[in-house]
Amino acid sequence: MHALISGAGIAGPVLAYWLHRHGWQVTVVEKAAGIRAGDGGHAVDLFGPAVDVIERMGLLPRVTAARTANDTITLFRTGRDPISLATADLAGGISGRHVEIMRGTLAGMLHDATRDDVDYRFETVIEQLDGARAVLSDGSTVEADLVAGADGLHSRVRALTFGPEPDHRRFLGAYLAVYTLPDVLGTGPTVAAFTAPDLAATVYPTLTPGLSRALFLVRTPEDLPLDRRGPDQLTRLVGDGLGPRVSAILEHAAGAGDFYLDDISQIRMDSWSRGPVTLVGDAGYGPGPAVGGGTSLAAAGAYVLAAELRDVTAGEIPTALHRYEQALAGPVRHSRRIGPKVLDAIVPRSRLQVWATAQAMRLIPRLPGPARRRLTSFGGGPAAMLDGLVLR
Ligand SMILES: Cc1cc2nc3c(=O)[nH]c(=O)nc-3n(C[C@H](O)[C@H](O)[C@H](O)COP(=O)(O)OP(=O)(O)OC[C@H]3O[C@@H](n4cnc5c(N)ncnc54)[C@H](O)[C@@H]3O)c2cc1C
Q: Where is the FAD-binding domain (predicted)?
């Protein structure tokens, strides 16, 4: 059996690994020239079952060794004293089994674990799809038994099979921007946080000494056209709302080689499989970047998909894909409630909520364990969505 996977992010390599283990031949096409490995990208979370998937791949020691080491978060407020909190206190409510790691580091490890057994084709995309027969951008044709779109929020396999993106995307009313900059705040290993109504920013260290990464969340009903998503738009949307320190951070946006600005949207589909074609990870059920636990859902979803495809014949694939959707239906439904909740918690809507956030940061370390966990769990958020998932 032969699988063609589009996308070598998180879901693609996890699916490739497990399908290969189950005896499949696997081809992965990836639009980019290589894996965006290293400490590029952003910090992502692996919770519960997603940690189990990584452990079953034999990667947990490496992943744990490379986990981010931000031990303190400091909230800066104009004209007020900063408030610091141990990140362990903040993460205590998220999950007992949780690893935070830079996305690029994880992607590099997943590629390493599959590169010898999987046919990776970089700078290659699927141009046309007819069932599981794909014409690729290099002119070749692949006759596969299964096509899996693991090509992220703006999935091409989804567009080719299920129609244009707007039909499946729900905008959550906010934008996300990320870029790398020198450690201009001099905060070293501390995560620096800033909030104001409808705005939040954090600046955190990368694995490269002297380099930080800035992450902005901006709530706005504006619909920014795709060709107008540059540093100038971020600067306009934030204005001087987060104070002079953040203005200094914004000055580095235009010069950043890795500037990224995208809408925070969810992918909502009742079904994400058709015949021998299916979607996995953000492509099929993205819960919203930075707010929904998408990495965990992508890793766990890929594992479940591969498990359902174990020992099937070509004729049994559509039924296996139906079982995959059923197994993930609960977590996916749950994930859709998380993004808006997390956004509301981390991007205050009013001055009162800005004040309340600061008070909560003061309070959290003094609370007894169970109360602290309840306050920091985002209402049973990203970690809880995978609680009901049983890995075979
Ligand atoms: C700033 C930011 C912060 C985040 N923070 C968190 C977090 O804290 N916790 C968390 O769980 N998640 C977080 N996420 C979300 C997380 O990164 C994604 O949910 C996760 O990476 C999904 O994995 P994926 O494999 O489905 O998609 P992706 O990782 O997006 O991979 C898709 C791959 O497909 C490739 N591709 C795209 N188009 C094509 C094409 N036409 N043909 C071939 N290849 C293509 C891309 O180059 C990429 O390699 C965050 C996301 C962002 C942007």
A: 3-322
